[in-house]
Queue: 2 jobs
Job 1
Amino acid sequence: MRVLLAFTDVGLGIPLQEALEGLGRDTRWDPAATPQLVCADPPDVVVIDGDGAGAGLAALADTWRAIDPAPGLIAIGMTADTANRAAAAHVMLVPPTATPAALALSLDEAARLRFTAALTPGLARRALGLRPDASAIELLAASRTLDVELAKAALRWYAQHYVTATAVVDQLRDARAMIPPEIEHAAHMTGTLTLQSVVRAGPLDAPAAARLVWVMGSLGAVTLGPEPPDLATGPRRALTELRAHLRARTRRLANATFYDVLEITPFAEVEDIELACQILAWRYGPDRTAAVDLGDVAALAAPAWDQVVRAHKVLTDIAARGRYNDWLRQRWSQLETQWAVDGAGATTAAEAYVRAQQALTAGDVHRALSEMASAARNQPGHPEYEAGLAWARYRVEVAGGKDQAETARRERTVAERATCGMRPWPRALLALALLCVADRDPESARWYLREALEIDPNSPAARQLMSRLGG
């Protein structure tokens, strides 16, 4: 094994070189070494300065991996930022305090896995022992006998990533390079299942599935990403939005009152509480969240629903609710709440919202904006008031000569932020759909209208707009 210490720290470089040479490793310390200078005769393993590389660690790692044959990589570093960057760059991290023997073991592992640090055709050919011009069909055939530990090592960085087939899968299938179980297994690669789920999906067993994903990722036949790749299908969009809702809800309700959890005021009746819980179940209930692969946000689903269950239990029990309200009053100055508000403010906001809707119907957009601003001011954070304010503001600004597309996109972002992490409010979703139409995105408008009509099937405005859009 030939090892290159490619960093400038003299105090680390010389002692490491001497120690590794004492353990029988052919080691060279060269602070000036670059991938371009050693590409004709690359080492087996390169040790780089993770702390020194900083945010450029991933780019530096990619440059070293571009050499053919690519060396194994190890980063020396000890900060938390370096650890995160090393993981993102798919580089093994070793602390500078590691003993020479421990570093030597890491070097051996890096050398063994040198062709698994990235998913590229060149590294795949090296890992399979094929000639540089071997075809995709040859790679696929050879991968079926690959040491599965190598495939696992290459895929370990992507366990929670979504697997999405590309057009290359169709090409491989049309060329009859794939056997029937592989074709059937590839049908799971829709961008809605993480790697862990795809490997377990069948009909291939887990080792064969890992080999298939590894070679297809290397050939560009699948992509692996931390989020679904796009909103091109209904399932992808539903998954993407639910992941965003769970993240936003977890942030918003970190120290929330039960009224914020259910999005009701302290004056809500039991019927209002039951309705709120039914609507929340439509988006966050166990049946809904268990039906999809939430990946790295799956751990947020149960706590989010548990909050709803606890809030329902307390607020529907008269005695428990009274004790809870007393507890809130004792801590009123410490609370950050949008829903545990006084009755006067909530009533004023609701009345202003009704007047704003009437003004919009009458075509008086300036009065509508004024009333909607009053509603949002008296109960900030209410999705209907915030989204309605965004729509009214759009109407006024466009009437005043502002660019329609730019204004629609800006106000749509405001409305999406106001509704994310909340329960679905039909009138807020209608306002958001109107902004999507103005933003020339009818598919998104139809999506939000379908959600609104799921909650309130009798909304005439939503039904009318959906009809206009051909939904």
Note: The chain has a mean pLDDT of 94.
Job 2
Amino acid sequence: MPVYVTLCTFTDQSVKDVKAVVAEMEAAKIVQSMGGSILTGYWLMGPYDAVVISEFADDETASAACLVTSAKLGLRTTTMRALNNDQFHRILDKMP
């Protein structure tokens, strides 16, 4: 399944009640209910508050899961498709 890297930041509203928002299991339930899985995640120091590595069947499902999670938990997210080394080399092989 495709892998995605999601960078998360708390909104002004969600950071006011951060203890209630920090619901890792809630995010995992949302992801699982949409057919995906969270591979790993980390809390961050810096411009982003968390990073989550997940997998979904396709880009549309990953996008929908990010929207649902953002709406329920009050987060802003930036999600990127991640390619492993083999996938990247197949791309390079297609170059003239």
Note: The mean pLDDT is 91.
